[in-house]
């Protein structure tokens, strides 16, 4: 028997996935905007950020309503809780993408540092891929994929450390690089944080499947920052 | 871990040819609340009634298996049903006060047992009504008819009537299904107070009631015990799909 709850849950699920796709696009575009130093595209992303926040609020309200009206238990409850928690992670990931767009504008025409440029490009590629994959893992309720994504997050953290080391090295060699290098540092940190939030979504996918609340990558960059 | 006060082993019950309980193994440790849930006709009320031999009165009933209360076989030929029902009391779905005063309702069991000491009876009436959380509401009307009370008050007087004979186990068969939400929550609060001193077994169709008050929940279906566990586990992560489907409202 199909319950009214199932229809509403399917709708909630679709809205959540849609928000995920939006965040995923924003991350992709903000990385592109930074790599191309495209201030126009970056500004557009900043202006659109409220869309993500509005979707987060709408999804939260819907989950509260469903909890109050249906009093879900077991798997039903886990589905709702997963969405409720994961939308916050998506929204925060969106905030960091917006920061990357800000950095694109701030960097302007300052001189690029090839070694850092390369590292950031790699981090951007990994972050956008992670975001796309976590949505697939969510849609397929794929616990295995969720666990594998945590490995990419560790790779991101290593790259983040590399960016940090190289930035300080550049600043030491040539103090005129200071402003530029500090922007690389910020972008690297933002991308690394996006990886952390995606990893948190992975944890909620595992919870959805197993009922276990676990910590993937407990000593991740989020605690060092 | 407190010891087991009531044990059921391979319990079968037949109404004529029909097998209503198909080999129930379920034990109860001393104190706390266990809720029995399941769809209508699943056998949970039948099972509850076997625990103080209420099914004895129904013709054509055959029971096999063993129920032991503190190690004593409840269905042994020597077992005394009056004594059993004193130690294992029952509260029913419809509040069923006798058409006497509140006072006489509460002391009914003691009076039958021959207790005449007025002072002792007074004390039992107050203590039982207090335990049933209805004392403050009825203390000035103890000699008025219990039938004049509201449904929720009547049900708490019925609980007091069971408590007055100092039972160890209290069985309740959907005790709030005939009551409004306010009275129901008063009964629930009463049971939560009693769970420290009594072993309480409650049949309920109200799943939220089970999740609110029961320490343990047992799920019955088609005459079988499907699963019993801590209430938290049953409602968060049951082991059996049938349990999950039932408590999530996926029927049929």
TrEMBL record, chain B:
Keywords: ATP-binding, Nucleotide-binding, Phosphate transport, Transport. This is Phosphate transporter ATP-binding protein. It comes from Levilactobacillus paucivorans. Residues 6-247 form the ABC transporter domain. InterPro entries: AAA+_ATPase (IPR003593), ABC_transporter-like_ATP-bd (IPR003439), ABC_transporter-like_CS (IPR017871), P-loop_NTPase (IPR027417), PstB-like (IPR005670). GO terms for biological process: phosphate ion transmembrane transport. SMART domains: AAA. The keyword Transmembrane does not apply. It comes from the Bacteria. GO terms for molecular function: ATP binding; ATP hydrolysis activity; phosphate transmembrane transporter activity. One of its GO terms (cellular component) is membrane. The keyword Cell cycle does not apply.
């Amino acid at each position: 028997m199909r319950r009214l709850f199932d229809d509403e849950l399917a709708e909630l699920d679709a809205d959540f996935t849609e928000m995920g796709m939006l965040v995923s696009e924003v991350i992709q575009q903000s990385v592109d905007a930074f790599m191309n130093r495209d201030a126009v595209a970056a500004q557009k992303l900043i202006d659109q950020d409220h869309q993500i926040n509005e979707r987060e609020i709408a999804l939260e309200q819907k989950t509260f309503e469903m909890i109050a009206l249906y009093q879900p238990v077991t798997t039903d409850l886990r589905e709702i809780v997963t969405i409720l928690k994961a939308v916050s992670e998506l929204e925060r990931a969106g905030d960091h993408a917006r920061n990357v767009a800000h950095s694109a504008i701030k960097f302007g025409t300052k001189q690029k540092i090839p070694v850092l440029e390369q590292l950031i490009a790699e981090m951007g590629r990994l972050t956008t891929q992670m975001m796309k994959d976590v949505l697939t893992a969510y849609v397929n309720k794929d616990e295995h994929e969720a666990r594998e994504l945590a490995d990419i997050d560790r790779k991101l953290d290593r790259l983040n450390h590399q960016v940090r080391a190289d930035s300080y090295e550049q600043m030491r060699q040539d103090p005129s690089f200071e402003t530029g290098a500090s922007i690389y540092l910020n972008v690297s940190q933002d991308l690394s944080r996006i990886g952390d939030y995606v990893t948190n979504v992975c944890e909620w996918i595992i919870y959805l499947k197993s009922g276990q609340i676990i910590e993937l990558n407990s000593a991740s960059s989020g605690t060092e920052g | 871990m407190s010891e087991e006060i009531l044990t059921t082993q391979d319990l079968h019950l037949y109404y004529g040819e029909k097998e209503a309980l198909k080999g129930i193994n379920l034990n109860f440790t001393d104190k706390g609340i266990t809720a029995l849930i399941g769809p209508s006709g699943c056998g949970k009320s039948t099972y509850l009634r076997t625990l103080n031999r209420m099914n004895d009165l129904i013709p054509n009933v055959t029971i096999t298996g063993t129920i032991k209360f503190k190690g004593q076989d409840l269905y042994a030929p020597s077992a005394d049903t009056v004594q059993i029902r004193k130690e294992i009391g029952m509260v029913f779905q419809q509040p069923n006060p006798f058409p006497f005063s509140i006072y006489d309702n509460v002391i009914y069991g003691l009076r039958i047992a021959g207790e005449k000491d007025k002072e002792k009876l007074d004390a039992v009436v107050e203590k039982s009504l207090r335990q049933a959380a209805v004392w403050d509401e009825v203390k000035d009307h103890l000699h008025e008819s219990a039938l004049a009370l509201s449904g929720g008050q009547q049900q708490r007087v019925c609980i007091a009537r069971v408590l007055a004979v100092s039972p160890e186990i209290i069985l309740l068969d959907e005790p709030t299904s005939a009551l409004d939400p306010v009275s129901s929550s008063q009964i629930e609060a009463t049971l939560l107070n009693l769970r420290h001193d009594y072993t309480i077994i409650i049949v309920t169709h109200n799943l939220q009631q089970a999740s609110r008050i029961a320490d343990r929940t047992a799920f019955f279906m088609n005459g079988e015990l499907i699963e019993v566990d801590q209430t938290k586990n049953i409602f968060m992560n049951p082991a059996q799909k049938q349990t999950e489907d039932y408590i999530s409202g996926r029927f049929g």
